Amino acid sequence: MNYYALQVKTRSEEKYIKLLRALHPELRMPIYFPQRKLDIRRQGVLIHSHAAIFPGYIFIELGDAEDILVHHWAFRKTDGFYRFLRSNQHITPLAGKDLEGVLHFIKKVGPIAGKSKVYFDENSRIVVVEGPLMGLEGKIIKVDKRKGRAKIKLDLYEDSFAIDLAFEMLDAAAVPGSP
Predict the structure, then answer these.
(1) Are 76 and 7 in contact (CB under 8 A)?
(2) 1-113: what CATH class?
């Protein structure tokens, strides 16, 4: 299977997917738009929200590299489309670390990344017990214990960006195998 990244209008990813499906029902390939759940406190009120993990990007799965050439005009003609990654002239499937990062959220986590369960060891390092942060410990660049968020650095092609993922703190004494 090959996975391709499409850049679309930011915050209109779901709208683009619905429009694409309506205009081109013959396109039956899986289309992924990984999201994350965050609780945001504004003026003392807790708001539950969803946000894109890769803002402005959706991912498609195709069995054959030639399939992208057959269908690429359907994607390009749909309102909200910006470009294929690498470029419209050099449509390149995801590979290496780019593919690993995207597959982590598509296959292991699912469509919406919830809260991870973590505790902090005796050296104040975060230890992930379960959840979307599992396997991404080396990508954590900042932890905000008060807000219950970990900022991780993600790479997509030659671009890096940071996103917040929510976590829930566990008592280290209650976790089996912890110090």
Answers:
(1) no
(2) alpha beta
